[in-house]
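Worked example

This section walks through a single chain of length 248. The input is the sequence exactly as stored; nothing has been trimmed or padded.
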Amino acid sequence: MHARFYHPAEITIGQLIELSVENIHHAARVLRLKKGDAVTLFSGHSGEFSGYIENISKSSTTVLIEAYHDIDCESPLDITLAQAICVNEKMDWIIQKAVELGVTCIQPVSTVRSIVHLSDERSSKRLQHWQKIIISACEQCGRNHLPQISPLISLPEWLSQKKTTQSSHDLNFMLSTTATESLRNIAQPPASAHLALVIGPEGGFTQEEEMAILHTGFIPVRLGKRILRTESAALATISALQTLWGDY
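Given that input, the structure is written out below as tokens.
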């Protein structure tokens, strides 16, 4: 597989593209690419472009675009992950692996028992950091569409949004240790359905939060008889959804 780089601007065949500062460092210092090496660029919308390195140095790297390839690695499932914000390393891990597993959208939410609390300024910086993680994950796993990540909001705010935007075909899930329902007992949703998964923080949701989630139409489900950590819960559930109804 050729080295892959995200280029947010328009890409056309025959174009000579200057890579970003971050990609220059990655190409020259990390991947040790040389002039003439084949690379792949994608803009985050659809398809990808093949080309080769026309010039490379520590300060500048240019790629000559040769061909467009209509490649789509997206899952047939439209999955939104609403993840209660957790400590940096765990949150980074969840976002990276959720992208690899095929989620469409990621919504960080703050909850009563969230250990991490961010000011508006810190929240904005974390959002930029998370966007970089998404780009890096797409470069690695072959996705040509960038999943969307939304600014951090409170769980009640997100649930209020859900009430006004969801349709009758959508399926919403909440992982719960007290749930009796298993995913395999739920009928396969129609192709147009949007799936949403909400995962609690390290200490779990409060009883009031669980009631609010249930009143919004979420189905409580459990995966086996074991209690999963917050960094395991989302990834295990997304994998199960992909196995049952997706492209696994």
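What to look for: Residues 120-141 form the longest helix (22 residues).
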